[in-house]
């Protein structure tokens, strides 16, 4: 009797996590499923463990169903699985120009902006893409002004605004693009005589909040940003989510591949970020740009980690 009870619990648990995993694949059907999809990697891990236990318990049908769910989820998430990102050891090419970029949600109440400055400067970026930037003297973009004199932060909000700062010069008189929102800004920088558009974006939270409606409102802007184009930011969404993928379709870009957990609630120890954190800070690049390296940087006072990229503009 106890064995039957055990098998019943294993079967029910395995089916439950498999159903949740399958629902995460329906992220284009409704924003609620898209919110669930942010936890797809966690559900993949849970379903894999559950199906292993089901297999050991000789629950063949349950094991088959769970295996099918895992395979489907792996296929849907393939470009963004661990180990599939840019290798990082690719040398700079003689064809094109290499750029070093850091993207970072500074957190508006970050009291360690000096630490953030040091972490970012150690990566020696050419361009820095920031979110939740305030206009206080201790704000990160002000601490970096001497080395990065070309700066844009068009409008602020209660939690700061989106900013791009560069040590490369602006490309032309209309290089700064401000929009009717504090959560999106863009500049055009001169890369060896060629213009490159770099945008900073900070998304609203996903369903039941207004992320999907916010993308609707900004769709006209994303679709006309000039190429070559880089959009960096805190998307509050995983790279396989419909939220990120829709912006990629609108802007004719692709998210950089691989899995880089960059955010974890401050209620949990930061040491868990690499294992259970969410990858919600991304770089979207147009087809003229090849990503050579992508990795998170050390803690910099925020609940987000800075993310470093090395890209080639062809």
Automatic annotation (TrEMBL):
Record's keyword annotation contains Nuclease: yes
One Pfam family hit: Exo_endo_phos
Endonuclease/exonuclease/phosphatase domain segment(s): 104-304
InterPro entries: Endo/exonu/phosph_ase_sf (IPR036691), Endo/exonuclease/phosphatase (IPR005135)
Coiled-coil blocks: none
Keywords, ordered alphabetically: Endonuclease, Exonuclease, Hydrolase, Membrane, Nuclease, Transmembrane, Transmembrane helix
Matches recorded under SUPFAM superfamilies: DNase I-like
GO molecular function, one term: exonuclease activity
Signal sequence annotation: none
Keyword Membrane attached: yes
Residue spans crossing the bilayer: 6-27, 39-56, 62-81
Official protein name in the record: Endonuclease/exonuclease/phosphatase family protein
Species of provenance: Oricola thermophila
């Amino acid at each position: 009797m106890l064995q039957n009870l055990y098998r019943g619990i294993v079967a029910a648990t395995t089916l439950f996590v498999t159903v949740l995993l399958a629902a995460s694949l329906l992220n284009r059907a409704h924003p609620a499923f898209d919110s669930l999809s942010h936890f797809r990697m966690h559900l993949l891990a849970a379903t894999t463990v559950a199906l292993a236990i089901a297999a050991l318990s000789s629950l063949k049908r349950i094991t088959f169903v769970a295996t099918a769910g895992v395979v489907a989820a792996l296929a849907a998430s393939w470009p963004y699985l661990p180990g599939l990102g840019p290798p990082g050891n690719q040398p700079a090419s003689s064809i094109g120009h290499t750029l070093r970029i850091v993207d970072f949600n500074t957190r508006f109440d970050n009291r360690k902006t000096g630490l953030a400055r040091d972490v970012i400067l150690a990566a020696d970026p050419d361009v820095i893409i920031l979110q939740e930037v305030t206009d206080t003297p201790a704000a990160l973009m002000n601490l970096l002004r001497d080395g990065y004199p070309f700066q844009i932060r068009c409008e602020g909000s209660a939690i700061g605004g989106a900013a791009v700062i560069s040590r490369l010069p602006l490309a032309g008189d209309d290089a700064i693009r401000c929009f009717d929102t504090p959560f999106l800004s863009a500049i055009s920088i001169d890369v060896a005589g060629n213009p490159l558009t770099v945008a900073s974006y900070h998304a609203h939270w996903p369903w039941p909040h207004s992320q999907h409606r916010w993308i609707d409102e900004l769709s006209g802007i994303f679709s006309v940003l000039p190429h070559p184009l880089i959009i960096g930011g805190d998307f509050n969404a995983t790279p396989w989510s419909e939220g990120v993928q829709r912006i990629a379709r609108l802007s004719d870009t692709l998210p950089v591949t691989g899995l880089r957990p960059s955010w974890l609630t401050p209620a949990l120890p930061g040491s868990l970020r690499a294992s259970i954190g969410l990858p919600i800070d991304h770089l979207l690049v147009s087809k003229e740009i090849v990503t050579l390296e992508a990795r998170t940087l050390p803690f910099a006072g925020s609940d987000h980690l800075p993310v470093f990229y090395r890209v080639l503009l062809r």
